[in-house]
Amino acid sequence: QVQLVESGGGLVQPGGSLRLSCAASGFSFRYSTMTWYRQAPGKERELVALINGDSSSASYADSMKGRFTISRDNAKNTLYLQMNSLKPDDTAVYYCNVGNYWGQGTQVTVSS
C-alpha cells in the first residue's frame, strides 16, 4: 500500500531554515510526480511545489519562489523540501502528496 511519511518539521525563528523529508513506499516513486502542500490554521490546503519523476521540472507557488526548493532522491524513494528565509506566514502543516494519497503531515512553526 502507498505510504508517505513526512518528517523534519519543527519550531524555527523568522529567517531560519528547515528541510522537510517525505519517505515514500508502495508505488513507483521514480515515475511519479510528487507534490508538497501546506495548510495553515483556518485556511484551505494550498500547493507549495511539485516535481516530476526525473527532476527535470519543478514548479512553485508564487509566495515560495526563491525561498523553497523541492528535490528528490529516487534511489532513496524520498522527497525533500528545503525552506529558507522562513516567515511567520509559512506556519502550517506540510503534506506530501502523490495522486490521491497523503502523508500525515509535519508541523512547521515560524515564530520568535
Question: Summarize this, please?
Answer:
The chain has no helices and 11 strands. With 112 residues, it is an all-beta fold.
Overview of the structural elements:
This protein is mainly β and 112 residues long. It is built from no helices and eleven strands. Strands 2, 4, 5, 6, 9, 10 and 11 form a seven-stranded mixed sheet that branches. A four-stranded antiparallel sheet has the order 1-3-8-7, with no helix packed on it. Strand 4 and strand 5 form a beta hairpin. The radius of gyration is 13 Å and the shape is globular.
Chain-wise SSE layout:
Blueprint (H helix, E strand, L loop, with lengths): L2 E5 L2 E3 L5 E8 L8 E6 L6 E6 L6 E3 L7 E6 L4 E6 L8 E7 L2 E2 L3 E5 L2
The counted number of beta strands is 11
Low-pLDDT parts are: none
Beta-strand percent range: over 45%
The value of Rg in angstroms is 13 Å
The biggest beta sheet, please?
Answer: 7 strands, mixed
Question: What's the overall geometry?
Answer: globular
Judged by helices, strands and strand pairing, the structural class is mainly beta
**How many helical elements?**
0
What portion of residues is helical?
A: under 10%
Mean pLDDT metric: 97
Distance between the termini: 40 Å
